[in-house]
Amino acid sequence: MVENKFAILIVDDDDSLTSNLQDILEAEGYSAAVANDGQTALSLHDKSVFTLVLVDIRLPDMSGMELIKKLSELSAGITFIIITGYASVDTAIEAAGQRDIAGYVTKPLAMDNLLYLVRQVVKRKEAEEARQQAYSELEKRVEERTKELTQSNRKLTNINQELESFSYAISHDLRAPLRSIDGFSRILQEDYSDRLDEKGNDSLQRIRSAAQHVGMLVDGIVGLPHITRREVKWALVDLSSLVQTIAAELQVSQPQRQVEFIIAPGVTANGNI
């Protein structure tokens, strides 16, 4: 049984035929209404929404083609099946090529053929509705996702601005004392290195290296908010050399720890510099 959701209008001046058609279509689960002329069909259209109209090509007050034109102008989604006698088959064949006309049947009606056309129209309408529903759901999801992304971008912008303000504050508070530490250490090295033993000079160098390292970290913090704004610059990075540098710094900063570093030579990777 077909789900009763498609309303069909039968337009023909043959009462026996329209009554028989109405019974058959309702038995199939469709909602069927009857009009004996074009004007009645137009009046029924004003009161109900029809998915499919079965229309005789010859009506008492107007031609079936004229009625089809008027109904199409009123509702773009209506599909038509033409009912015709042998004398007007040529006209029906010509009309069947139009976009909203699914086909035609001749009198006396072969009900199997008519029901086949009706079911094809129903399947096509169901497919159109499913496609439209899927499109609407997709459009809704895209709209929701766009809204979420907009909100996330706004939050990220606010966080980035806060980070930028914080980094500049940190930079201002740390750079001056770091410059003083490095500067005074350099003066001590230049003016008093001959008065210091090896351990003293080494300590001064460590102080300077540590101050310069922290300065680089501060510069990195200041530049952090701008990372996403910069163009990515890919380059080959010598990982072996980088690890050797880190190992050397660790050995200097923590000489009491005896650690053996095994570093493979020539290890490289692409990275953003």
From TrEMBL:
Catalytic activity: ATP + protein L-histidine = ADP + protein N-phospho-L-histidine
Coiled coil: 124-162
Pfam families named in the record: HisKA (PF00512), Response_reg (PF00072)
GO BP terms in the entry: osmosensory signaling via phosphorelay pathway
GO molecular function term, any single one: phosphorelay response regulator activity
PROSITE patterns to which the protein is assigned, alphabetical: RESPONSE_REGULATORY
Record flagged with keyword Kinase: yes
Protein name: histidine kinase
The species this protein was found in: marine sediment metagenome
